[in-house]
Amino acid sequence: DAMVIQNPRYQVTQFGKPVTLSCSQTLNHNVMYWYQQKSSQAPKLLFHYYDKDFNNEADTPDNFQSRRPNTSFCFLDIRSPGLGDAAMYLCATSRESTGGRVQPQHFGDGTRLSIL
Amino acid sequence: AQKITQTQPGMFVQEKEAVTLDCTYDTSDPSYGLFWYKQPSSGEMIFLIYQGSYDQQNATEGRYSLNFQKARKSANLVISASQLGDSAMYFCAMRPNFGNEKLTFGTGTRLTIIP
Prior knowledge:
- The complex is a heterodimer.
- Chain A is 0% helix and 50% strand.
- By secondary structure, chain A is mainly beta.
- In chain A, the strands form two sheets. In chain A, strands 2, 4, 5, 6, 9, 10 and 11 form a seven-stranded mixed beta sheet that branches. Chain A has a four-stranded antiparallel beta sheet with strand order 1-3-8-7, with no helix packed on it.
- In chain A, a hairpin with a 6-residue loop joins strand 4 and strand 5.
- The N and C termini of chain A lie far apart (33 Å).
- Chain B contains no helices and twelve strands.
- In chain B, the strands form three sheets. In chain B, strands 2, 5, 6, 10, 11 and 12 form a six-stranded mixed beta sheet that branches. Chain B has a four-stranded antiparallel beta sheet with strand order 3-9-8-7, with no helix packed on it. In chain B, strands 1-4 form a two-stranded antiparallel sheet.
- In chain B, a hairpin with a 6-residue loop joins strand 5 (32-39) and strand 6 (46-52).
- Classes of the chains: A mainly beta, B mainly beta.
- At the A-B interface, strand 5, strand 9 and strand 10 of A face strand 5, strand 6 and strand 10 of B.
């Protein structure tokens, strides 16, 4: 049973044409994350939501935006994709870490974005 | 700030042998969690195992165990009786217990199991 669902699995867009990637979760986790992962590299955090609070990483380009209309859904908008934005985009969720246990992040299958 | 170091970019292991993937970390946080993730070529990131910094015992999950040596700041993943399906990229990661929710990843180790 998929718990973090990303659509589509593969996305092709044209240079400069806005694109939206979606993520939904059935875990009711209050924290959601978007990562960018390029070939043979570790995932790079773009931003995360702590409930409705948006937290942008300092080096995330302005070209990348996000929306979280409710607990279950989160979207990644790339306003004007460039060739360098071709990558795997991973969505993850977690509970906030409380007490003695740090909560793991649970990832979706990712969306592989290609730019023509 | 946290840092994760994985010094083995690639490893080749014979099927059915045990394998150890190295991970060292650096942090000033007194309480933190350490994680290992598996990423097959299909791209999904699969959570394997967790170790809390104050846990007294090393974590185990089936064929996976974590050799946690806090004084040496190491958290090596041990896979027993390796299988062909274990071929994947493996990432070590850490996260502080409070405050910043950010997960810091290492650069990964590509494991290939040879039949």
